[in-house]
Specification:
The complex is a heterodimer of chains A (227) and B (457). Chain A has 227 residues and is of the alpha/beta class. Chain A is 40% helix and 22% strand. Chain A is built from 8 helices and 12 strands. In chain A, α6 crosses α8. Chain A is elongated. By secondary structure, chain B is α+β, with helices and mostly antiparallel strands. In chain B, 56% of the residues lie in helices and 17% in strands. In chain B, the strands form 3 sheets. Chain B has a 5-stranded antiparallel sheet. Chain B has a 5-stranded mixed sheet with strand order 7-9-10-12-11. In chain B, α2 packs antiparallel against α3, α4 packs antiparallel against α5 and α6 runs parallel beside α7. In chain B, 24% of the residues are buried. The chains are: A alpha/beta (227), B alpha+beta (457). Chains A and B meet through α4 and α8 of A and α5, α6 and α7 of B.
Chain lengths: 227, 457
């Protein structure tokens, strides 16, 4: 996994590079827009993380140039402006995700990971499976160990989202954006209550839990807690 | 007011221009008067002389030289003052009759007219000029008929003097009034300028003096003052906000400092715990800052930037669906009464955020077993969204204050929150030109948000 980080704030860049390094992700860093664009168009990266305000050439400029040249590498824009209109502007310019500073690294990591995975699996799937939990996407039918589980529509969509990101950490804001399609800041842990309902339905009667809470980050759906 | 300022003022330039035009007009009138009056006197003299000359020439033809000499002598006698001047000479310019000693040496034009000095000033008589008509008679005689024009000159001088005085007075009035008017205008503008400068130097309490005249200058001054009042009020608000921010952020920062000190001085296990708490507190601080920035950004946004057509019914159902589990965990009854197809122009995410904040508050402050109701009611032009609860409510006197940043009804901080939720709701309501009203649900609180219905539906 290779990530290119174009960020002029040395402090933020070090923090991100170090954290990715610990997870075994290779990070190349450039602090100037032009250098960054040059590297992004000559080398192959899984994800580009680009700050919006940069010396030389700004983040949206890099993004537009790349997209105009047919480069489809997933891009996550970092912004210290970070409000809804900037977000819309960023997405319009062709970014795949948008994250406002200051952010927790776990949020950035979860989003970058989601972007990396997305690259490969564009083919439509009819069935998703994690261990013995299976959902039939077309029929919206959920079974675990052959036993049918009845879910409310929203619970189903939460589960489908988690299944599509199986093995990845999914943050609460990603769930709000991905499942509810609202970009907003819930003041309390409304998502957690929904998740505990889903968990109750898919995990309670079974020995092996599949839905795990990742402290300080979010949730992950996977077969077993790795040791 | 300084002269330099007055000289640069446009009002003075305009006054001066009008003054010059006025003076030019008056000068034209005065010149006309001068030439008609003075010219009339000149023409009168000349026609008298012509008539006189014709009479004498007739005399000469009828009675010859002798008759003419006698006639001239008689005329001279009848005018002892010397106002009339006659001279008859022979071909050698020797005087034969008349009251002039010798033929004048001044140039004579083709029609025979001449002006000459009658006598120089001496101790007995003043300088006098004469105008005369000359002609040559048959048999080589020369005849001169003239008039002493001192009297005429005197009258002409009087007229000229009067006209010059009139001109002088006109100039004084024109420029004087111009200066007066423009200095008044400049002074009033300068009053405003002085106020503006005072404000730029930091004294925001300065105001333009008004005189109660009700004229346009005063109107400008009054509006200027109103604008300043508004700016000052805003400044005060901003100051209050930044004071509140400083005050409210000091506490968590102090906590954070304590945690870090604790971490530094403890064994690794406890230090780790303290650092976790510190990290958590930092997160809360960041989210408080984000919330503040968010409010500021919403307040700075223009009406309808990024607005789309939003079905309020769907949005309310989504809010209800998102919060229902949280309410039911608190054993609260959460009811949503709405219908689809109520369209408004809105920023979908922000409107969701605003209504979610209201619902979140209702759930937070309503005790277990209480009821929260989210409903909508649409009329022809507006849609009224109501969030009501059966919690403790907000006392009437605090209802305006709850929208202020960091204000919390329960300041003991037993419930989580940063005191910014309703400020954001207020900013969002303002952005959507929606009225927000807090009312009594007896018991509990009722928040009413009145949105403009989209015209196309």
């Amino acid at each position: 996994m290779r990530v290119l980080l174009i960020e002029d704030d040395q402090e933020v860049a070090n923090y991100i590079s170090k954290a990715f390094d610990e997870l075994g992700v290779v990070v190349d860093h450039r602090d100037d827009g032009r250098d960054g664009l040059l590297l992004a168009s000559t080398e192959d990266y899984d994800v580009l993380v680009i700050d919006r305000m940069l010396p030389g050439l700004d983040g949206l400029g890099i993004l537009r140039t790349l997209r105009a040249n047919g480069n489809t590498t997933p891009v996550l824009i970092l912004s210290s402006l970070g409000e809804v209109d900037d977000r819309v502007e960023g997405l319009r310019a062709g970014s795949d995700d948008y994250l406002a500073k200051p952010f927790a690294f776990s949020e950035l990591h979860a989003r970058v990971e989601a972007l990396m995975r997305r690259g490969g699996s564009e083919a439509p799937v009819t069935q998703l499976q994690v261990a013995d939990l299976v959902i039939d996407v077309l029929a919206r039918r959920v079974t675990r160990a052959g036993k049918e589980i009845a879910l409310q529509p929203r619970e189903y969509r939460l589960l489908e989202y988690l299944m599509r990101h199986a093995g990845q950490v999914v943050t609460r804001t990603m769930l709000l954006e991905g499942v509810w399609d609202y970009h907003f800041d819930p003041q309390t842990n409304v998502i957690d209550v929904h998740m505990s309902r889903v968990r109750a339905k898919i995990d309670r009667e079974f020995d092996q839990p599949l839905l795990h809470t990742v402290r300080g980050a979010g949730y992950v759906l996977r077969e077993a807690e790795p040791n | 007011m300084s002269i330099r300022l007055l000289l640069r003022s446009s009002s003075l330039r305009i006054s001066l221009l009008y003054g010059v035009l006025f003076i030019a007009a008056v000068m034209i009138v005065l010149l006309f008067i001068y030439f008609t009056t003075v010219g009339y006197l000149d023409r009168q003299t000349d026609s008298d002389l012509n008539a006189d000359m014709r009479g004498l020439m007739g005399q000469f033809e009828a009675e010859g030289r002798q008759g003419l000499v006698q006639n001239i002598a008689q005329r001279v006698r009848q005018n002892p003052d010397g106002e009339v001047v006659y001279l008859l000479t022979d071909s050698e310019w020797q005087p034969l009759s008349g009251n002039l000693d010798q033929w004048p040496t001044s140039p004579i034009d083709e029609q025979g007219w001449t002006d000459f000095l009658l006598y120089e000033w001496d101790f007995e008589k003043e300088t006098r000029h004469a105008r005369a008509l000359t002609t040559s008679l048959p048999e080589g005689y020369y005849l001169l008929v003239g008039r002493d024009v001192a009297e005429r000159d005197h009258v002409q001088h009087l007229i000229l003097d009067a006209l010059l005085w009139a001109l002088a007075i006109t100039v004084v009035i024109a420029f004087g009034v111009g200066l007066l008017v423009s200095s008044r205008v400049t002074r009033r503008l300068e009053n405003m300028n002085r106020t503006a400068r005072g404000i730029m130097e930091g004294d925001l309490s300065r105001r333009v003096p008004t005189d109660g005249s009700g004229d346009d200058f005063e109107q400008v001054g009054i509006n200027f003052n109103r604008m300043l009042d508004r700016i000052q009020a805003l400044m005060t608000t901003v100051q209050q906000i930044s004071n509140n921010v400083a005050h409210d952020l000091r506490k968590p920062l102090t906590h954070l400092q304590h945690r870090l000190e604790e971490a530094r001085d403890s064994d690794p296990d406890r230090a780790r715990e303290a650092l976790e708490k510190a990290s958590h507190e930092t997160d809360e601080l960041i989210s408080t800052f984000n919330a503040l920035l968010r409010i500021a950004r919403v307040e700075a946004r223009g009406w309808r930037s990024e607005f789309t057509e939003v079905d309020l019914g769907v949005l309310l159902e989504d809010v209800g669906e998102l919060y229902e589990p949280t309410a039911s965990e608190k054993s609260q009854i959460f009811e949503v009464f709405t219908e689809k197809g109520m369209f408004v122009q809105a920023d979908r995410d922000l409107l969701f955020q605003g209504i979610a904040n209201l619902v979140d508050n209702a759930i937070k402050y309503t005790p277990a077993g209480g009821t929260i109701r989210l409903s909508s009611e649409s009329s022809s032009s507006t849609i009224l969204v109501t969030v009501s609860d059966t919690g403790p409510g907000i006392p009437t006197e605090l209802r305006e204050k709850v929208f202020q940043r960091f204000f919390r009804v329960d300041d003991s901080r037993t419930t989580p929150g940063n005191g910014l939720g309703l400020s954001l709701v207020h900013a969002i309501a303002d952005l959507h030109k929606a009225d927000i009203r807090l009312a009594d649900n007896s018991p509990g609180l009722k928040v009413e948000l009145s949105l403009e219905r989209h015209a196309d539906h």
